[in-house]
Write a structure and sequence with these properties.
single chain, seven-stranded mixed sheet, 6 helices, globular, binds nickel (II) ion, binds manganese (II) ion
């Protein structure tokens, strides 16, 4: 598919490195070092300008504090997670909430709903992490990406489709903690996107959903591209 100058690299699980048309590097859900799906050679980032965090589970924020201290990126998250990050010494946070849009460097980020949970495991205690979210990212060249975060399908995905018209969606399909291909196939009908990157599957044996199953359940959606990347592979 045509990504209009945007390069997306799947680092495995819910984590993506996105290079913008002007050469900024965005990391969505910083789980890199301990991420068993992430290829070794991609665990060190050369550059990091913006970090987007969908929720407080370890498999989405484990490297947030270390990477923020090392690279000093702008960090976007829901208010409660920003407070928690600040308490750990992270600077340059942009706290927001659902429905809000912020311009961060050369991208525009809208925080949208996700149907999941959001506790932060911190020294053996679960802290309230606000709510989980997804992001709609608009690039200066007109390309729009929807990263759903960890979520079940929800009816308001129809609103996300109609309001933001994403060109590409990253949707979880692993089952157990998120949608399986069954729910993701329904989500694709609500969103009306023409292209999807399946994510949050295969990292551990319990995440059993597969792109093949998603393909099987969406054969009737005309023109749909299921872009089944391998961890470390890029698009654009
Ligand atoms: Ni989660
Ligand atoms: Mn997760």
């Amino acid at each position: 598919m045509e990504t209009r100058g945007v390069k997306l690299t799947w680092l495995g699980h819910g984590t993506f490195k996105v290079q913008t048309p002007v050469g900024k590097t965005i990391l969505i859900d910083p789980w890199v070092q301990g991420n068993p799906a992430c290829p070794e050679k991609l665990k060190e980032l050369e550059q990091l300008d913006v970090m987007l965090i969908t929720h407080g589970h370890f498999d989405h924020i484990a490297d947030a504090v270390a990477l923020a201290k090392k690279h000093k990126p702008t960090v976007v998250a829901i208010w409660e997670i920003c407070q928690w990050l600040a308490s750990k010494g992270v600077e340059n946070t942009v706290d927001m909430n659902k429905g809000g849009t912020e311009k961060v460097g050369d991208i525009e980020v809208t925080m949208v709903h996700a149907d999941h949970s959001c506790g932060i495991l911190d020294e053996g205690k679960i802290l309230y992490g606000g709510e989980p979210c997804g992001y709609v990212i608009r690039f200066a060249t007109g390309f729009t990406l929807y990263h759903a975060g960890d979520t079940n399908v929800f009816g308001d995905m129809k609103i996300i489709g109609e309001l933001y018209k994403p060109n590409l969606a990253c949707l979880p399909i692993g089952d157990r903690y998120t949608m399986s291909p069954r729910e993701a196939a329904y989500a694709l009908r609500l969103l009306g996107v023409r292209a999807v990157i399946p994510m949050h599957y295969g990292t551990f044996p319990i995440l059993t959903g597969t792109p093949g199953k998603l393909k099987e359940l969406t054969v009737d959606i005309e023109g749909l591209e299921i872009l089944a990347l391998k961890p470390g592979e890029s698009l654009g």
